[in-house]
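Quick one:
INPUT:
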């Protein structure tokens, strides 16, 4: 199974970001915009999890998430991967970075403990808002995203999500939340 561990923003934050992006979508025909129901902050990408590893992974994530306190967070500003001059992904940045880094390390450690391979490089807390078909100079889009700030919310849990490639709208992935892992109450 192709899985990822993520924080999924609440409906009001997704709606706020979608409303911010709506008037810009028509001006960005070269962009493939992320569907609102797919907006999430990936903590760990797990490209190949067998059925046998799923129970161990779920147990490890339950334990690790329960040891971390819930925290206030928000989306603020944005940028592009791999860089503004050859962008393939536009994103809204997520805060607070130190807390999100701890949560990402906990998710990746849980996967390792369960014998599940984690894919991806250094963690950058973000929510992907659009993808580009080819590397593109994106400074105008970054300037627009720099003006964005979401309502704040308390992240109370992480989710384990299955990604089924090509099974969603127009050949996009279909996401199914398999499990939710509550954080400890905020101090």
């Amino acid at each position: 199974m192709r899985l990822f561990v993520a924080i999924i923003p609440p409906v009001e934050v997704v709606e706020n970001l979608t409303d911010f992006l709506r008037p810009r979508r028509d001006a960005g025909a070269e962009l493939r915009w992320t569907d609102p129901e797919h907006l999430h902050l990936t903590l760990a990408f797990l490209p190949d999890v067998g059925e046998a590893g799923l129970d161990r992974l779920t147990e490890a994530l339950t334990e690790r998430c329960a040891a971390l306190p819930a925290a206030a967070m928000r989306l603020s500003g944005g940028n592009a991967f791999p860089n503004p001059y050859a962008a393939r992904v536009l994103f809204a940045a997520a805060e607070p970075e130190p807390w999100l880094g701890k949560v990402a390390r906990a998710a990746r450690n849980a996967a390792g403990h369960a014998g599940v391979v984690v894919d991806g490089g250094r963690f950058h807390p973000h929510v992907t808002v659009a993808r580009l078909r080819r590397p593109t100079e994106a400074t105008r889009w970054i300037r627009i995203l720099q003006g964005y700030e979401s309502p704040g919310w308390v992240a109370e849990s992480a989710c384990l999500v299955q990604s089924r490639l090509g099974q969603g709208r127009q050949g996009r992935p279909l996401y199914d939340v398999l499990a939710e892992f509550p954080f400890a109450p905020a101090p």
